[in-house]
Amino acid sequence: xxxxxxxxxxxxxxxxxxxxxxxxxxxxxxxxxxxxxxxxxxxxxxxxxxxxxxxxxxxxxxxxxxxxxxxxxxxxxxxxxxxxxxxxxxxxxxxxxxxxxxxxxxxxxxxxxxxxxxxxxxxxxxxxxxxxxxxxxxxxxxxxxxxxxxxxxxxxxxxxxxxxxxxxxxxxxxxxxxxxxxxxxxxxxxxxxxxxxxxxxxxxxxxxxxxxxxxxxxxxxxxxxxxxxxxxxxxxxxxxxxxxxxxxxxxxxxxxxxxxxxxxxxxxxxxxxxxxxxxxxxxxxxxxxxxxxxxxxxxxxxxxxxxxxxxxxxxxxxxxxxxxxxxxx
Length: 329
Ligand SMILES: NC(=O)c1ccc[n+]([C@@H]2O[C@H](COP(=O)([O-])OP(=O)(O)OC[C@H]3O[C@@H](n4cnc5c(N)ncnc54)[C@H](O)[C@@H]3O)[C@@H](O)[C@H]2O)c1
Ligand SMILES: O=c1ccn([C@@H]2O[C@H](COP(=O)(O)OP(=O)(O)O[C@H]3O[C@H](CO)[C@@H](O)[C@H](O)[C@H]3O)[C@@H](O)[C@H]2O)c(=O)[nH]1
Prior knowledge:
- The protein is α/β, with parallel strands linked by helices.
- It has helices at residues 11-22, 56-65, 80-85, 87-107, 141-160, 191-199, 227-242, 260-271, 295-299, 309-328, and strands at 2-6, 27-31, 46-50, 68-73, 112-118, 163-169, 171-173, 206-209, 221-222, 224-226, 248-252, 258-259, 277-280, 289-290.
- The strands form four sheets. A seven-stranded parallel sheet has the order 3-2-1-4-5-6-11, sandwiched between helices. The protein has a three-stranded mixed sheet with strand order 12-9-14.
- Residues 78-80, 118-120, 170-171, 189-191, 194, 207-209, 220, 222, 260, 283, 286, 290 line the site of uridine-5'-diphosphate-glucose (UPG).
């Protein structure tokens, strides 16, 4: 029995692989390395297959050869502004290829499927916290590609009995506390990574995308959730499904948010660097506020360990320093 992690060479996927390996699971990673890195997969403990989630033939082979009993589907293109600029690439990679994977899971008799979805599916909602019962209303193509995959899973569950867990992550941040993994993509646009790079002198200043939102300081609010806590949520959901638990959609966040300016202040405090902040225009596709209601996931036994923005920022800074040292070596 083995777990297939798609996108396991990426930021969140590589942390999922570490958690699974630490828990004694046999792990197979399928990744096309478009934004992931082969070195991010601990290949002494996990098998890395370089390939495409849309490659049905390869999927059928992997599922039967490795006796896959669970799929954690993490592979995707995941950058909101990129999805606004090139939506069809996002529908192909995130929706069409997810369909191929779901089909292969059903054909191969894989009973458990966990999907990496996103808070972006909620769109612009005024509620303080977002419940999974809210209607989905994504305001960007990326969010829509994730909703369509959620719907495919729901329909496949009713038609063919596939059991699924959907985890709607909020803003994933930080790095492995043991320093084994982190956000490594040079194209990453994530605020905590970008601010850490500014603090380390790798970028000249921090742009703030929009200061006229209807939030207390005018900047967007997000629920920043630490990446190892997110990875552990998958183990909790997997255990639930393997025990015969019901298919479900669950938020994965902490239930409280921080604004862009608050994040910048924490990065300044933790790094000890007073960098320049430049107020700018809104970025297309950004909802004002995304904060999770997390009762469902907690009810399954998920207990976060790193719910502390200073800790998250210090992990991100440490990882950024490590990447810089590696480049210099
Ligand atoms: N980072 C966040 O804050 C966040 C929040 C919510 C949801 N998510 C979701 O989490 C997942 C992982 O995101 P991430 O931040 O780790 O991004 P990432 O880009 O680091 O990881 C994605 C991985 O998937 C691989 N991949 C992409 N398309 C593929 C394909 N067709 N076939 C095989 N491999 C493919 C990439 O090479 C990469 O390794 C995504 O599904 C994303 O939508 C991320
Ligand atoms: O240099 C920067 C980068 C970001 N932001 C702002 O910071 C907030 C957070 O942005 P970012 O870190 O880019 O994350 P999101 O666009 O919220 O998207 C992330 O979080 C979503 C879940 O909420 C995931 O689905 C996405 O994959 C992931 O990229 C937004 O208001 C941005 O406008 C800035 O002001 N300056």
